[in-house]
Specification:
12 strands, Enolase-like, domain 1, TIM Barrel, 39% helix, nine-stranded mixed β-sheet, single chain, alpha/beta, three-stranded antiparallel β-sheet, 22% strand
Length: 360
Amino acid sequence: MSAGHRTIERIRARPVVAPLKRPVRTALGTIPDAPLVLIDIDAGGLRGSAYVFSYTPSALAGLARLIADIGAEIVGMPAMPLDIARYFDRRFRLLGLQGLVGMALSGIDMALWDHFARAAGTTVAEALGAAPRPIQAYDSYGVIDIRNDEKALRDSVDAGFRTIKIKIGDGDLGRDVETVGAVRQIVGPGIALMVDFNQSLSVAEARRRIAALAPFDLFWVEEPVRAEDLSGHAMLRQTAGVPIQTGENWWFPAGAQAGMKAGASDHAMFDIMKIGGITGWMAGAALAAQHGMPVSSHIFQEASAHALAATPTALLIEHLDLAGDILIDPATPRNGEITATGPGLGLVWNEAAVSRLMQN
């Protein structure tokens, strides 16, 4: 049976809260665990799977219900991701593609691509025309406690990571300088070091802090101001003297296009759950190529490894393991690199762990 004749029979959405090996501390609060919705699409005797991340448990049940409700609309349709994406674009044009709706559509798209590639007996990367290849990973930390995290940082370097990101902005300028200076001393001069403010600053304060941190040879400064403040990011690019990174909150290719047109970033960072799944990512990747803009990923390391393999200006993949505890074969960095696995997206649920972590 060809992939084009497989009809969607069922979509299942299961909410789980997965433990994180390193809770993510940010300037705006701490994420102790990963609230995830696991998506399974059955069509023609095959299953496609993906997951999305609700950030907060309070949105988890609602996101799972939304995915199930939206998914019910496409039961009986061929399991073809581009056709379903066109259907959803028209279906939700008046409501818009941000927030939980956008997350749900992206998750369904990823599961459809997983199914499509499995039906073809290949990986998603290969279905996109690219061979899976090692992508240099950046080991992603939250806010650092130097005394408690020094060993982990040294372990990252010893494990082969050549790029490391930390979050800052949870205190005053002095604290940021002390933290970044200490991390630079720990990892040494040969490691690319990035910092993430998680949208916590005003433009004026961001300019002041970036200037103070510039001597530590930062590879990029991420989201210093609100994600939607494209002009603020653009102004900082003109004065900072350090590359500015944004994009994880660009919703669908239209959001990426707006950010690039505004000159808001030196780099592009796609979150596959917000950019529109695999389909949206590839459209965004084409835009980035036109602008000569390097593309890195935000979380979702399993799916992102496939999308980055097919991205002309791919740069880095984020290593922040959300789903390792619920997968049979988690994506594991080797010598600081992550390679896409298959079939499909390479996702196989550990059903015993899923049962234990399921939320009612």
